[in-house]
Amino acid sequence: INKMLEAEAVLIGGLIDGDTFPVIGELWETKFISTINDIAKNFTNIDIAPVVSNSLRYEMAESVERIKPILAVNTLAVIIFCMLVCCTRDVTTSKPWVGFAGVFSTLAGSAAGFGLCVYSGAEFTSFNYGAIFILLGIGMDSTFVVLNSWHRTDRKASVPERLGETMAEAGVSILITNTTDVLSFLIALST
Length: 191
Description:
0% strand, mainly alpha
């Protein structure tokens, strides 16, 4: 057979001992990807996607560069959303700054956690940029649970009484939710 008539996909594999010669292996992979991408420009009806051992790292680094410009915009959108969710029609019960405080405390806690990890020697990888949004979602969930419990307390009670009722109701829910989140992250870390 001199030519291929039809194919859904073709996988051409090759092995290089990148563990024994990591620098040479990485240089070879970089040159391979560059060469294949140059050749791929000649084909209009064939999609070529080279995959090497460092492809995931390359893709994540490229994704981070695409995420960085919109990270601030997304964070601002989350802040505005949380402030709007905490607004009500009644000016006395509307608490938009509580929504801002919820986002700020979550971001501050995430920054402190990342700082502690980097200080202890953990590598800051590109996966951590995605973790920011996961942590923000978990933190905002807890904020909304507390706010919901606060709104259900008696408005005529004193602030310490309302806060006590709020934490008695929301504290257990937040503890269980965050404990299961931590356990699921630890299970994912171990696999």
